[in-house]
Amino acid sequence: MAGVNGDGKGKKDDNGIGTAIDFMLSNAKLVLGVGGAAMLGIATLAVKRMYDRAISAPTSPTKMHQGGKRSWEEPAWMGSSPRVLNHSMKSTVSRSLQTLPTSSQACEPASRPKPLRRSGACQSDLQRARMRLSLQERLWEFYQKHVNIPAEEQTVARRAALDICAELRVFLHAKLPDMPLREMYLSGSLYDDLQVVTADHAQLMVPLVLEKNLWSSIPGEDTIMNVPGFWLVRRENLEYFPRNSSYWDRCMVGGYLSPKSVLEVFDKLVGSINWPAIGSVLDYIIRPVVPSETLTLEVQYETDRTLYVDFLPLLVMGDGTSLIAKPHRLAAERHENLWRQSFRVAETARLRALDQEDGGCRSTCLKVAKAVCKLHPALHRLNSSQLTNAILLLSEKEGDWTQEALADRFLQLLRALVGHLEAGRLPCALSPKVNLFCELTEQEVDELGYTLYCALSEPEGLLKTTQ
What we know:
Beta Polymerase, domain 2; 45% helix; alpha+beta; 13 helices; 11 strands
């Protein structure tokens, strides 16, 4: 009994519980013996210390004594259990958090269990889940305000492009009736519902007719230049069908059909058209763009709306390969005889098919990424083909493309692009030997990689810079 009164001095009133514990400890050996009392003492002492700390806690847990030490701290042994969440458990928690609403009450069960020792990890996961939900909302808001083009604007732009196509068709047939051409047609993202921000670009495809027995195609990787994705078109059977047997022999350089020479022919023709007169009839302002990698017309069809129409000669070979007269960006002079292989039709078809199979958000993710690159100066060099193929490659690894997963897939796309830039290679999903980054300089790769890497920590920044 000697220990009952002495330990109670200077302490707050504990309603007799502390006194009872002391009484039990001091008299335990009378009932349990020395060994039993020792075991009971160890267990009870831990409970008593926790209780004493709890009732002595100040109003504010962060209140400091004059000595600089907090007057109440969590016991050192609290949370020191060796049990931790393994990888499987963390994944389960993460997946569960993604489906939770943003309300803080969502984590509270109906009955109050004992506090979790890993509450800090739960709060961290919950914060990440809320950030994903926030990004999801921002992406859809960005899509509605900046990505999606009103149907009326698209209709007017298509009508302007069609007017230009009609004028060129009439002029070419009248000026050069013997030029072997198939019917010209309009193409591009404006006609695939993949154009973003503003309806300002269309492609006028001009299919050339080549005699099958006079021309053959050679893939770039089978030549000394070794450039996958580009092709040579070689003149054949010159001993039986001498020069000028084909209309396109006039565009032959070193035994190969030169896309540069073909463009020069059309450039002279288009340059001879009286565009001011045609523009006055159509109520447009039309002028060729100089300089330009391809033959491009600038069409101002309304006071504040401008459309750029690329004039693209096209070859469709016997095996279905589509080649366009668009030069290699970094080595146009050295590779002036190379025709670029176009995968756009097949890429778009695959993207559409995948979305139709699972109601996915691939096209939406692509349009958001295109808008970000179009509006962000440091990302201008990332084009539609590169973004489309990055998404197609990502689709091979990731199965969840539901609309609710847009934020996660957008972040994955950023990570994937950073990885491809770091490797200096983005393989074409339809032809892996083709490197879609082969026309970027080292400085451009570094700038793109740095911008996207920084965006991983704050992806919403990409959306803020464009607003």
